[in-house]
Design brief:
Blueprint: H1 39-50, H2 55-60, E1 66-71, H3 79-95, E2 102-109, H4 110-113, H5 118-123, E3 128-132, H6 139-143, H7 165-175, H8 177-184, E4 189-193, E5 197-199, H9 207-214, E6 218-221, E7 224-226, H10 235-246, E8 272-274, E9 278-282, H11 283-286, H12 289-301, H13 303-306, H14 310-322, E10 328-331, E11 336-338, H15 343-348
Parallel strand pairs: 1-2, 1-4, 2-3, 6-10
Antiparallel strand pairs: 4-9, 5-11, 6-9, 7-8
Helix pairs in contact: 7-14
């Protein structure tokens, strides 16, 4: 029922419009879980944690803590961005860490790990700075994978002129390696957060306890926005194809509420989404057989990269397809800012820079 192979008739017929959206969009075999290995990263993180005063206890109890993953692909070179990161981490610790145990994993280029700023060691002694490596992390491995090598600024990927090559790879990394890493570290829930995302009000409950009790698959911040059509082009058509070939007649989530007249087309889709800069997701949900089958088929098309769907659009479509209303938690009562506020604004939030 959940075969990951794309059948030959995908290349013609009523469900193939998404394959014709880009002249470069072709079948992209490879880059599945077999193309990277989280074991080195798991060993590295575990060794770092065991050096903490209560490291053995932390490592034994990751199932009751949220695995927070932040990726800083530019490393520690930008002073202005360092102030954003300082504030983001302080607010995370203040407003989430008080009621929910968290383990924070900050991924940076391997060459930057040895140059971790002293303020991280002083203020966040239990934050784990993780290397993005060609051998293990999947991020740079994807960037150097043969199927995507040699595509520079003349690439026909959607909005390629606006975004770096690494930006596209980051989206694939978040959909693949990140979840594998968190699962293997033993966490039940993962918080995906950007280094310039600021939580400014208290989450006054233990997320792992409450979400586990209520069987929450995803938790999102309340603000609903609309993405431009070109960066989501083809996603409803692809989803319809997956449903047809897998025998799903009706989405489990509210997708039909967002399609005009039930039409699975990019033109009929309202393209509403919750921000990916702050997303809590159940590891069990992510590794559900149907969810993984959807993702593996999508990776074979290369659309998450070439069409610039990225993690945000794909995660939102997974919510619309697979998450029942009762399995979605919306943070209505907290305030979040995403962007690059001036230092004076950061200080007004109580951040020490």
């Amino acid at each position: 029922l959940f075969s990951s192979e794309i059948p030959p008739y995908l290349l013609s017929g009523p469900y193939t419009d998404f394959l014709n959206l880009s002249s470069t969009l072709t079948l992209r075999g490879g880059y599945f879980r077999s193309s990277y290995n989280v074991s080195q990263s798991i060993a590295y993180a575990s060794q770092k944690i065991l050096k903490f005063p209560n490291g053995a206890e932390i490592l034994a109890n990751t199932s009751i803590s949220v695995g927070v993953v932040c990726i800083l692909s530019t490393g520690f070179t930008d002073n202005a961005r360092m102030n954003l990161l300082k504030c983001s981490l302080q607010l995370l610790k203040t407003y989430i860490g008080q009621h929910t145990p968290i383990n924070v994993y900050l991924f940076v280029p391997q060459s930057h790990v040895a140059h971790t700023p002293q303020w991280i060691t002083d203020r966040f002694p239990e934050l784990i700075v993780m290397p993005l490596t060609t051998k293990d992390s999947g991020f740079y491995k994807a960037a150097h994978h043969t199927q995507y090598s040699g595509l520079g600024h003349n690439s026909t990927w959607i909005r390629r002129h606006q975004f770096s090559y690494e930006y596209y790879m980051m989206g694939r990394w978040r959909l693949t390696f990140m979840f594998d890493f968190v699962r293997e570290m033993g966490h039940k829930y993962m918080l995906q957060i950007d280094d310039d995302t600021f939580v400014k009000q208290m989450v006054d409950f233990n997320m792992v306890q409450v979400f586990s009790r209520d069987k929450v698959a995803m938790a999102v911040w309340r603000n609903v926005e609309t993405d431009p059509e070109d960066v989501m082009l083809g996603l409803p058509e692809f989803s319809r194809y997956w449903m047809k070939t897998r025998g799903m007649e009706t989405p489990l989530g509210p997708l039909l509420n967002h399609l005009r007249d039930g039409n699975y087309s990019s033109e009929a889709w309202d393209r509403e989404y919750y921000r990916g800069c702050f997303l809590v997701c159940s590891v069990d949900f992510w590794f559900d057989a149907a969810v993984q089958d959807y993702l593996q088929l999508m990776f074979k098309t290369g659309s998450d990269i070439e069409q610039r769907w990225q993690d945000q659009a794909v995660q939102n479509m997974l919510r619309l397809l697979f998450v029942k209303p009762e399995a979605l938690h919306v943070f209505h009562n907290i305030d979040i800012t995403h962007g690059k506020p001036a230092d004076r604004v950061l200080r007004s939030w109580g951040c020490q820079l």
